[in-house]
Structures are given as structure tokens and as C-alpha cells.
């Protein structure tokens, strides 16, 4: 049986790269996409180009996404798992004073880019009876004061559940991964006591490795420092 093919957006660093490493270790063939081609190529070289294909892609651009998906099909012949992981954070200031351009970037990546990713891959996932995993956030379940980021993750959570309803009966599974504080390249310095990218990657692989009759709807994963529901760093 051919090994499954996983398509990862936001795959050059952090959660996406950690998931690519773990997936390759479990026998997946992986396509990693992001806007940073240099980091993508370095990751593909590290993991082996027989198993990993690096494709520059901007999830805000429908043509870019469709081209990346087509390259996946041409190179590996199928698409089994889509990890819609691309996302960006914002800037401080809340709704009263944060720069509106930072809102636009978050909305276009975290919401519009997610929707385009699903649109661009849906037909192939139906063909393989595949699996969509979406990176949302605890902030997509509990509102943060003045946070457009939280609003975009609420939208991501809603999109995930709505996509599952849309594809009911097709055999396609949809999982939302909702981590708390994660030490990722979002931050300039390492964050002690946060989740590591590998923690989230394990949750992704747990969901996709369930038998076909079982579907993990949501995985909420927080570091112990957040066990009292405190969402702030």
C-alpha cells in the first residue's frame, strides 16, 4: 500500500515543520508549503527529498494554492491529509489602537487563507476519503480581551465544524487542533513553560492515525501553566 501523502501549509518552521518531521518518521510522504522558500528547501533537504517536497505557496493567493496542490498530485499521485496550519499573530493595542494592517494580515491568512486551502483540496480529499486537520487555538474557544487574533481563531473553529457538516457522507474527517501557549517563531525569545511544537505535532498524528471509523473532532492542548484557564503569557 502506498504511504499516505500529507500537505502542510505554514510548514517551514514551528508546528508545521515539527509535524513534517514526525509524519516522515511515521512513513508519510509530505509536501511542505510556506512563503519562505529558503527554509522550506532546508527542511526538505534535512528530511530527504524522496519523502518531502518543498513548494513555495501563499495561502492568501488562490492560484498559488491550486498550483501547490496540483504539484502535490503530479509528484506523489494522491492527497490524503491536509494540515491547514498557516497562521499569523497580531500586534498589541486591541480594537481601540492596534494597527488595522495587522488585522488585515491576520484575517487574510487565518480565515481567508484557511477557507482557500479547504476549497483547493476538497476534491482530492473526497477522492481519497482523506483527513483535514486545522490549527485553531484555545483562543478560538475563549475570547481574549481586544484580540483580533482570537476572533480569527473563533472563525477557524467555526470553519472546521462547518466544513465537516458540508462533507458529511464523503468519508472525509475533520479535526481541530486547539493549542494554548506554544513556543514558536511567533516569539522573539524562547518561552519557558510553554508547549513545544512537537507536542502539537503529536496531537496531529494522533488524530490522523485513528482508524477510518473514528473521527477526532477537537484536541485542546495546553501547558500546565494554563491549566487554570489563564490564556495570557
Characterization of the model:
The protein is of the alpha/beta class. It has seven helices and nine strands, in the order βαβαβαβααβαβββαβ. It has helices at 14-25, 37-47, 62-76, 94-97, 100-128, 148-166, 197-208; strands spanning 5-8, 29-34, 52-56, 81-84, 131-135, 173-179, 182-183, 195-196, 218-221. The strands form two sheets. Strands 3-2-1-4-5-6-9 form a seven-stranded parallel sheet, sandwiched between helices. A two-stranded parallel sheet has the order 7-8. Helix 3 (62-76) packs parallel to helix 5 (100-128) and helix 5 runs parallel beside helix 6 (148-166). The longest helix has 29 residues, at 100-128. The relative contact order is 0.14. The model has no long low-confidence stretch (mean pLDDT 94).
Produce a short descriptive summary.
The chain has 233 residues and is an alpha/beta fold.
- The total of beta strands comes to 9
Structural category: alpha/beta
Binned strand content: 15-25%
Tell me the distance between the termini.
45 Å
Oligomer status: single chain
Please provide the ordered H/E string of secondary-structure elements: EHEHEHEHHEHEEEHE
Average pLDDT level: 94
Major sheet details: 7 strands, parallel
State the low-pLDDT regions, or none: none
Strand order within the widest sheet?
3-2-1-4-5-6-9
Provide the gyration radius in Å.
17 Å
Portion of residues within helices: 40-55%
Q: Which term fits the overall shape?
A: globular
The helix tally amounts to 7
Amino acid at each position: 500500500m502506498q504511504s499516505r501523502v500529507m500537505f502542510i501549509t505554514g510548514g517551514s518552521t514551528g508546528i508545521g515543520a515539527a509535524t513534517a518531521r514526525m509524519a516522515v518518521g511515521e512513513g508519510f510522504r509530505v509536501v511542505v508549503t510556506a512563503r519562505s522558500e529558503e527554509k522550506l528547501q532546508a527542511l526538505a533537504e534535512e528530511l530527504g527529498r524522496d519523502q518531502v517536497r518543498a513548494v513555495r505557496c501563499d495561502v492568501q493567493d488562490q492560484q498559488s494554492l491550486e498550483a501547490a496542490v496540483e504539484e502535490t498530485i503530479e509528484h506523489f499521485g494522491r492527497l490524503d491529509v491536509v494540515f491547514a496550519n498557516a497562521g499569523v499573530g497580531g500586534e498589541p493595542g486591541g480594537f481601540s489602537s492596534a494597527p488595522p494592517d495587522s488585522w488585515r494580515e491576520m484575517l487574510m491568512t487565518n480565515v481567508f487563507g484557511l477557507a482557500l486551502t479547504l476549497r483547493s483540496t476538497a476534491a482530492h480529499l473526497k477522492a481519497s476519503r482523506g483527513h483535514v486537520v486545522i490549527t485553531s487555538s484555545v483562543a478560538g474557544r475563549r475570547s481574549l480581551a481586544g484580540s483580533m487574533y482570537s476572533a480569527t481563531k473563533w472563525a477557524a473553529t467555526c470553519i472546521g465544524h462547518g466544513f465537516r457538516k458540508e462533507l458529511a457522507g464523503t468519508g472525509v474527517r475533520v479535526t481541530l487542533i486547539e493549542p494554548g501557549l506554544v513556543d514558536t517563531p511567533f516569539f522573539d525569545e524562547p518561552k519557558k513553560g510553554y508547549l513545544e511544537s512537537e507536542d502539537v505535532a503529536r496531537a496531529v498524528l494522533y488524530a490522523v492515525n485513528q482508524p477510518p471509523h473514528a473521527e477526532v473532532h477537537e484536541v485542546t492542548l495546553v501547558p500546565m501553566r494554563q491549566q487554570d484557564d489563564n490564556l495570557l503569557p
